[in-house]
Amino acid sequence: MGKYFGTDGFRGEANRELTAMHAFQLGQFLGSFYGSQARRARVVIGKDTRASGYMLEDALCAGLTSAGADAYLLHVTPTPSVSYVARTEGFDCGVMISASHNPYWDNGLKLVNAQGEKMEDAVIERAEAFLDAGASAPLATRERIGRVVDHAAGRNRYIGYLISLATHSYKGLRVGLDCANGSTWQLAESVFKALGAEVTVVGNTPNGENINVNCGSTHIENLQRLVIEHGLDVGFAFDGDADRCIAVDERGQAVDGDRILYLYAAFLQKQGLLGAGHVVTTIMSNMGLYRALDALGIGYEQTDVGDKYVYERIQQRGDPLGGEQSGHIIFAKYATTGDGLLTAIKVMQAMLAQKRPLSELHAGMVSYPQVLINVRVADKAAAAAHPQVVAALEAARAGLGTQGRILLRKSGTEPVLRVMCEAEDGDMAQRAADSVAAALRDSGMAVEG
Questions:
Q1: Share of the chain above pLDDT 90, in %
Q2: CA 336 to chain centre
Q3: pTM for the complete prediction?
Q4: Would you call 113 helix, strand, or coil by DSSP?
Q5: What does the mean pLDDT of the chain come to?
Q6: What is the tens place of the pLDDT at every residue in 7-55?
Q7: How many other C-beta atoms are found inside a 10 Å radius of the C-beta of residue 113?
């Protein structure tokens, strides 16, 4: 990770770590990097519902057009729609203005290339250098000045693409949706109604400040209540930019990314579509997932946390499926990134094709008790390397032995160290995680906030 860009773009508190000037400079860099005297660069842009998104969008467009590029606006839209439009409509790159599941005061700039994939490290490094130098691209003049184009039609084509991927009618099914007051606040209901479902929606009243607030995939308890109270057949919760999806079955049980990977891999296997393919997971996946896949004879791979790394491994091996416990699921045949709406459609396919309720489809996976503690720190690398923290981590691993595991990892999107522990005994996992989190705080490396 660089000074500005982490594993999921340039992210920080709006007008503190991430300013309008940063967006303007990034726009200038992209316009000059992809453009030339012979041709204009074409960049597609989307955003979520944060109030600061308009400021950053305007600044980004000013930078692009001043450098002679054309900016095409999808407006409020999911992150995966930017990837889809970039790769299907011949754009040089795409930018999504979002901080995903973070609070509203944060925002971010996510870059995708012409293939709709996370931007190559080489380009990110050049963007970093441009920003760090406070550089300015040559200013376009006269007919070379770029344009800003309303491109809501691109978002509509993405919606049509999603609908085309559904293999069954949803008529007669009662579906709950929690849109996190984010990017799917209008789109999700439209997609499911178009497919025939009876839809109940929450988290669909964004005001610029309530994105992810007690709603969406990071607060699944709301959707669980909705499903039970309304007697729904299934529910789906998205995060702020809709690249994640967590499901809820008809019994009100949460179906996280690990369980979605399990049930869809099992479905592919039954359909004879998995072949020798593996499921790509991350180091945060539950040990129960691996036990369940072993029982089915399905192989798996493991990467660092981040759908970027999952997709890279999928590409290397040609595997059909991968994802994260958090709900980033990549269906390689259909998308280049995690897509919450696509994930919901694929879960519906597994249910309808097998004529079984969702609770039965994930019942074969028994999760180990897992504890996750986030500790805010000023310097992630220094905190992880502090002798007191290292000693506590080693002691916790020794205490767990073969009955569990514990990880300390740096968040790629926040100033946070994550302590994750899982074990056959939940109390044992809690004690081990607490001991490492306490060491972080006692070391003086933790900060409030």
A1: 90
A2: 12
A3: 0.91
A4: coil
A5: 95
A6: 789 999 999 999 999 999 999 999 999 998 789 999 999 999 999 999 9
A7: 18
Q: Given this model, what pLDDT does residue 270 score?
A: 96
As annotated, the active-site residues are 100
Backbone φ, ψ for residue 35 (5° rounding): -95, 170
Nearest to 212 by CA among 309, 343, 118, 326: 326
Closest Cα partner for 68 from 149, 135, 145, 148? 145
CA distance 306 to 308: 5
- 154/44 Cα distance (integer angstroms): 9
- In the predicted structure, residue 240 carries a pLDDT above the cut 90: yes
Structure tokens that stand for 378 in this block: 């000023």
DSSP E strand stretches across 269-356: 279-282, 300-303, 321-323, 329-331
- What is the C-alpha to C-alpha distance for residues 200 and 261, in angstroms, rounded to an integer? 25
- Give the tokens for residue 123: 């380009």
How many helices (H) does the chain have, and how many strands (E)?
A: 15, 19
Contact 105, 95 (CB under 8 A): no
Amino acid at residue number 12: G
Q: How far apart are CA 105 and CA 83, in angstroms?
A: 24
Q: Is the pLDDT of residue 1 over 80?
A: no
Extract the tokens encoding 193. 């109604």
Cβ-Cβ contacts under 8 Å for 440 (sequence gap 6 or more):
375, 377, 383, 386, 389, 417, 419, 446
CA distance 257 to 435: 27
> What whole-number distance in Å separates Cα of residue 361 and Cα of residue 365?
9
Nearest partner of 89 among 154, 148, 4, judged by Cα: 154
Site of tokens 């002691």 = 395
Cα 24 from Cα 345, distance rounded (Å): 37
Close Cβ partners of 402 (under 8 Å, ≥ 6 residues apart): none
d(CA 24, CA 141): 17
Entry field: residues in the chain: 449
Distance from the first to the final alpha carbon of the chain: 23
